[in-house]
Amino acid sequence: GGTGGRGGESGSVKAGKMPEGKKMRQCKQEEEQQQQKEEEREGLIEFYSSYQELFQFFCSNTTIHGAIRLVCSKKNKMKTAFWSVLFFLTFGLMYWQFGILYREYFSYPVNLNLNLNSDRLTFPAVTLCTLNPYRYSAIRKQLDKLDQITQQTLLDLYDYNMSLPQRDWSTSSSQRRSSRSLLHHVQRHPLRRQKRDNLVNLPENSPSVDKNDWKIGFVLCSENNDCFHQAYSSGVDAVREWYSFHYINILAQVPDAKALDEPSPRFHSSSHCLNVSVPLSGTIPTSTIPLYGNCYTFNDNSSSVWTSSLPGINNVGLSLVVRTEQNDFIPLLSTVTGARVMVHDQNEPAFMDDGGFNVRPGIETSISMRKEMTVRLGGSYSDCTEDGSDVPVQNLYSSRYTEQVCIRSCFQLNMVERCGCAYYFYPLPDGAEYCDYTKHKAWGYCYYKLLAEFKADVLGCFHKCRKPCKMTEYQLSAGYSRWPSAVSEDWVFYMLSQQNKYNITSKRNGVAKVNIFFEEWNYKTNGESPAFTVVTLLSQLGNQWSLWFGSSVLSVMELAELVLDFIAITIILAFRRFRTRQKHSPPGPPLNSQDNTAFQDETPALSAPHRFTVEAVVTTLPSYNSLEPRGLNRDGEVGHE
Amino acid sequence: MNLKKYLVRALHRLQKGPGYTYKELLVWYCDNTNTHGPKRIIKEGPKKKLIWFFLTLLFASLVFWQWGILINTYLSYNVTSSLSIGFKTMKFPAVTVCNANPFKYSEVKPLLKELDRLIEAALERILQPGNSSDSVYPPLDLELWNQMPLVLIDEHDKDNPIILDIFETNQTAMGNETMGNLTTGSDNCTYRNFSSAAQAVTEWYILQATSILSKVPLHDRIRMGYQAEDMILACLYGAEPCNYKNFTQIYHPDHGNCYIFNWGMDEEALNSSNPGAEFGLKLILDISQQDYIPYLSSAAGARLMLHQQKSFPFLKDQGIYAMAGTETSIGVLVDELERMGYPYSDCTVNGSDVPVRNLYSQYNTSYSIQACLRSCFQNHMVESCGCGHYMFPLPEGVNYCNNEDYPGWAYCYSSLRSSIKQRQICIDSCKETCNDTQYKMTISMADWPSEASEDWIFHILSYERDMSTNVTLDRTGIIKLNIYFQEYNYRTISESAATTIVWLLSSLGGQFGFWMGGSVLCLIEFGEIIIDSLWITIINLISWCKGLKQRRARARYPDAPPTVSELVEAHTNLGFHPLSPGAGREGTGGADSGCKAVAWWVTEPWKSLKGTLKSLILSPSPALLAQLCHTMEQSLGMGPKLLLTSEAAEFPFPSHYNGNSKN
Predict the structure, then answer these.
(1) Which of residues 24-63 of B touch A (CB under 8 A)?
(2) Contacts with A, B 60-89, CB within 8 Å
(3) Nearest CA of chain B to the CA of A244: how many Å?
(4) Of B327, B500, B649, the CB nearest to A358
(5) Which of B148, B12, B86, B11 has its CA nearest to residue B492?
């Protein structure tokens, strides 16, 4: 014969394990409990009297599949065991699956959507720099002096006498003072050759030393004379870096950067775009980037943005003729001939260094663009920011938030904090001034130290700055051809010089032509959409519930009810036991509960656990019992009870 | 002891069977199953029953159809991909730079002297046909020529092309000419055709020159190439200086000495955390065009390639040229593709599961599909030609091909190279890598050095290289390279499984729950029913067999043996006489089992029956007693009838009864 639900089994096991005396005592306690329960039953709401009852009720009434099998197949012990093992196995499996589902949901996966948009393309802003730092009149004198010092240095180090363009050296007292102070500052940062890993200043041409063991660099010292060598393996890099270091210092001394923005004759160009000729000669440079010379941005104002609806060079595009001749050059800085073009979105700063495209003189460069937009889902889906307002870095640029804008602002703010002055290439925060070794003696040392920290991400700029959720990328590819061609050269140069009123001296290297156009009519958009929403999660959870137990949320409620009931019973029983112990602690109570029906319910369950039956609502198998020879016996029992 | 008892009992339980018939089983299942529908079939009226039966059938088939679709979807192993673009600190790529010209002409001139004279004479013949000027030159060594002569093919007559060896005859056909070079095999020949003489001569020269140079030992070839200190004049990575010692030398068959920066072999790969040229790699190279081998390489410049750390640079496939006298700016975008491995896509993680021996592993480089394809080709070459091609590394114990030791190698090579079958075998056996990294480059050029600054730049560079104050460099040999990350430096496409096992299970469960309200437990219920019915079948079969045996045994008894009830009657009521057994067996489980039971009872010793009856009566059950009394009254009053259910003794083993009574 089989036992009933699990409750009965566990109850019997518990009782069976106890020694005889203890069992007796427990029996007595049970009796008392039953008494009290009887009392309470009259007064309070109806409640299960034991765990067993609770489990029986649960198993027979729940909507969870399988639980019912525990009850209705109770006459077959093997089946009961099988079903209970199965029940717990599926339960475990389901929760394992739940765990996986939750993990998947909280990883916030996204789907990638690729779209090809063919609406009207807005022509991007184009920034063009001449790659030719300009000798501004405000600092001309100091630059001349710096050239002289450089000439002397090169002569010392390389036996090379650089020919300087002839200038009139008017020696007024103020200039002499300024040049003396410049010389003093330059001498604080001398360019010198050193042996590898050795700070000893070596005599030149010493035959004992292999030339490959030499490095060249300049010394940077902090205020408390902690010095280090900014070293380079080649003199070309060293001289240029050294020169530009001084050039920045000289530039920084000019109080107002606006004073430098004088209309220069550097850029004379003609342009036709969007079937309308836009005269561009005499355009005022929009910005000045010290090492890239004067820069001009086209199509930057958002009020009248050019739109392009047809691809290809002939229809719509920007075509520029750039004069790349180097007249008033600084030989140590402008080592490259040509121009640098960059395509970027309106209201985004042009970082010529990162995304620029070089243009060779004497060549027509046809740059075809392909636009690609990426729109990310914000929030918990990916770590991006909509407009940068939630990024803990102040945006120093006047433009829209981009990752590079943020990183540069972050560096600049750190620079101001640590070195007390701002780096010249980045915008100036409020209340700060540009670094300049007349005021901040050790800024060079500070800057290079900070740069190393920045690269190693000690400053945390790369963590603080998050990607913008929406970004536009222009992929450039170029084709080259000779321009102007040999046969057309003469008239092209004649026309250009007539139009712009200057003479082109070097024919091939004097001009360059740039065409910028869209390669395709459409542009690509990479969008994201959530792959795993709350609805998906719920339906997946529901599916899992359904798969393993064929049940719903209400079944979960049933389970919760079971747990609550279990706790309630435990509390009640514990409370009763506690009270009994308090009341009848010294003498054992008399056995006076023979006529107690509740007692009769309970005691057989403890002594002979399989004697109770469940009042199952389940339809039992017809004639199941009657078929067995012991059926009579069983029937008798049922009838008896 | 206890265990044995339990086992015996379990065995008996098995022998007894589930205790019901098929129909009962089915009805019981329909009533108790958790799937919706079956309950309706038995509960409703006859017409509705039919409707419900068909509805259940329909929904069950719908569920199976949906399950089929879902499992099919799962087994197709689809993937979803996610894309991310942005800037992050990334490993700087390895940069390989080579000179387009493999060897310095001044070094290899003695080796190529004969060949150069030969090609000069041949060129003269081609350019000035009919003007024989053999006497001007010292006699040519025609041994090289005879192995692989250049011929002129006149294809005026398509069917009978006239083939003329350049040195054999002065007569050349005018008009539609095709240059070809003849490649001799051991017994057969093939022509490689070119439409232009320039192409033919270059190809011919390359074949001849490599054949000559392959006999030179490797360290001599390295010595004849460009040395790092001569080629790499300046190097700057970000703000840190580097020089030629930071480069790893590797010998490339086409380009001679190549130098790799940041290969990650000995030290950690460099990271770059900032975009822009100022934070990238700046190189100044000298390719010294004056020392180029005139016929070997007609392009001048530096060959460079960006590739992953620890991967072998395949310059012929992916290299780009940088022009002399320019500054080449290369903005890099790292394009990564992360694929899921088997079974989602057919790719390999580290190449260990590819059936081709990777010959490039001797360079300690990682697997790539190019390495695999080349290794595959070389292995085939070694198999069919007996020697290795100079372009690829050698397996152990094999030599490179040359004209002297392997006269037919060129024919063998060209036939192998044009074999589509061989290529297909290699393509099939080589797998792509799961993590594919490509470097997308935006290349732009400007003139460098500028006219204004070239003076001081050349001076300083010459001084640093040769310690001389004279300028030893010029615009035709000097190249500047800027390699840096773009504003957005990575684009990663990573795959993830679209359908997981969790997805599959929950979808299966969802469908089952939606159509039939079922769960896994219902399936197990169904399984249980099947097992039960099998059990019944087996037991029925056994009993049928036993019945057959019994029927034979029955022949010994003239009369049918008394049934249980009769025996009981006989025991309790001495005046009782058994009636014909056929009347008692109506409407019961089966004639066979009844017969069998009776037979058993007859053969069984009397005391066993007595014990059973005792236990029956002793067990306190008023209902049983009442029933007994009732049946006795009936049998006495209304004539003979079967008292107990005949199935009571379907399997009447005594131990079964003992066990039952213990329960």
Answers:
(1) 24, 27-28, 31-32, 34-35
(2) 80-89
(3) 13
(4) B327
(5) B86
Find out whether A214 and B229 touch, Cβ atoms under 8 Å: no
For B66-90, what is each residue's pLDDT tens digit? Answer: 999 999 999 999 888 888 888 888 8
What does the pLDDT look like over A109-130, one tens digit per residue? Answer: 888 888 888 877 788 888 888 7
Q: Across B448-532, where does the E strand assignment appear? A: 478-497
Q: What is the ipTM of this complex?
A: 0.73
Highest mean pLDDT: which range of A368-372, B144-148, B406-410, B576-580: A368-372
Beta pairing, strands B256-261 & A110-117: unpaired
Q: Which residues from chain B sit within 8 angstroms of residue A640, using beta carbons? A: 621-623
Chain B CA closest to residue A542: B510
Chain B residues close to A633, C-beta within 8 Å: 619, 621, 624, 660-661, 663
B13 touches chain A (CB under 8 A): yes
Residues B294-305 as b or e (16 or more Cβ within 10 Å = b): ebbbeebbbbbb
Nearest to B206 by CA among B315, B142, B112, B125: B112
Residues of B in contact with A337 (CB under 8 A): 446-448, 450-451
Q: Please list, in sequence order, all residues whose beta carbon lies within 8 angstroms of the beta carbon of residue B256, skipping any fewer than 6 positions away.
A: B98, B99, B101, B102, B103, B221, B224, B225, B226
Q: Which is nearest to A333 in space by CA: A136, A135, A168, A129?
A: A135
Comparing CA positions, the residue from A569, A605, A564, A572 lying closest to residue A36 is A572
Task: Judge whether B70 and B508 are in contact, CB under 8 Å.
Answer: yes
User: What is the mean predicted confidence (pLDDT) over B204-217?
Assistant: 82
Q: How confident is the model at residue B624 (pLDDT cuts 50, 70, 90)?
A: low
B239: which chain A residues are within 8 Å (Cβ-Cβ)? 230, 448, 451-452
Rounded to a whole number of angstroms, the distance between the first and last alpha carbons of chain A is: 17
Q: How far is the CA of B614 from the CAs of A626, A629, B526, in angstroms?
A: 20, 14, 41
- How many Cα atoms are found within 13 Å in the side-chain-facing hemisphere of B79? 15
Report CA A282 to chain centroid distance, whole Å.
43
pTM: 0.74
A272 φ, ψ to 5°? Answer: -130, 130
A31-A35-A41-A43 Cα dihedral, nearest 10 degrees: -160
Residues in chain B: 663
Q: Which residues of A419-457 are buried (b: 16+ CB within 10 A; e: fewer)?
A: bebbbbebbbbeebebbbbeebebbbbbbebbbebbbee
Among B240, B155, B216, smallest CA distance to B191 is for: B155
Helix extents (H) in A327-400: 352-355
Largest CA distance in chain A: 134
pLDDT of B279-315, one tens digit each? Answer: 899 999 998 888 888 888 778 899 999 999 888 999 8
Asked if B3 reaches chain A (Cβ–Cβ under 8 Å), the answer is no
Helix, strand and coil in chain A, % to nearest 5? 45, 20, 40
The verdict on a CB contact (< 8 Å) between A354 and B525 is no
| Residues within 8 A of A (CB atoms), B 370-409 only | none
Cβ atoms of residues A308 and A316 within 8 Å: yes
Nearest residue to B444 via CA among A518, A320, A512, A347: A512
Q: How far apart are CA A163 and CA B455, in angstroms?
A: 9
At A117, list the tokens.
């948009």
Of A531, A541, A550, the CB nearest to B80: A531
pLDDT at B487: 83
Please report how the helices A20-43 and A597-607 are oriented relative to each other, as an axis angle in degrees rounded to 10. Answer: 150
* List of chain B residues whose C-beta atoms are within 8 Å of the C-beta of residue A624: 19-20, 24, 28
Tell me the sheet residues that pair with A368. Answer: A477, A517
